[in-house]
Amino acid sequence: MIHVYRRRVFGYECDIYGHLNNANYLHLYEEARSVFLEDIDLPVRKLMSMGIAIYVTKVNLEFIKGILLESEVVIKSWVVSGSRLRGLWQQEMFVADELCSRITIEGVYASNGKPRRLPPEVWVVFEKYINKQRDL
After folding, report:
1. Distance in angstroms (rounded) separating the CA atoms of residues 125 and 112
2. How far apart are CA 125 and CA 107, in angstroms?
3. One-letter-per-residue 3-state SS of the chain
4. CB atoms within 10 A of CB 29
5. What are the distances in angstroms from CA 24 to CA 13, 28, 63, 79?
6. Residues 75 and 5 sit within 8 Å (Cβ to Cβ)
7. Cα→Cα distances 32→23, 29, 90, Å
8. Which residue among 5, 22, 108, 129 is least packed, with the fewest CB closer than 10 Å?
9. What is the pTM of this model?
10. Is the pLDDT of residue 134 over 60?
11. Under 8 Å CB-to-CB from 114, ≥6 apart: which residues?
12. Domain map of the chain by residue range?
């Protein structure tokens, strides 16, 4: 499954040149992943109530084309691979169907600050959304 998230870029997110500030790409990608989790009925609040956290362990962010103030961005997100202990997400950011950025996020599931396998009933939800091939 490819999850699609849309939103506009606001002035407070831009640098002095009117481009989306580099640090804010991470914010937008995080927003899109959070909405993805909500849409599959595993919002962060629910995971926290179950004692589960997702800790980011590695980020690879590629800037391809600048994004301007007031642009509408479309972020496509999917889970590439995973297990009950770790996950690998990929996301791409577009403006008007033009690829502007891509990111790969690796994470580990944790409880009380230590790696922990997801309970089977949570893993089965994640497993349904693994999309090994990018079929946009």
Report:
1. 22
2. 17
3. CCEEEEEECCHHHECCCCEECHHHHHHHHHHHHHHHHHHCCCCHHHHHHCCCEEEEEEEEEEECCCCECCCEEEEEEEEEEECCCEEEEEEEEEECCEEEEEEEEEEEEEECCEECCCCHHHHHHHHCCECCCCCC
4. 23
5. 6, 6, 12, 22
6. yes
7. 15, 5, 11
8. 22
9. 0.91
10. no
11. none
12. 3-127
Question: How confident is the model over 22-70, as pLDDT tens digits?
Answer: 999 999 999 999 999 999 999 999 999 999 999 999 999 999 999 999 9
Exposed / middle / buried, residue 48 (Cβ in 10 Å: 0-12, 13-18, 19+): exposed
Residue 91 in tokens: 């996301």
CATH ID of 3-127, from 3.40.50.720, 1.10.1200.10, 3.10.129.10, 2.40.50.140: 3.10.129.10
Contact 91, 32 (CB under 8 A): yes
Residue 56 identity (one-letter amino acid): V
Give the type of residue at 46.
K
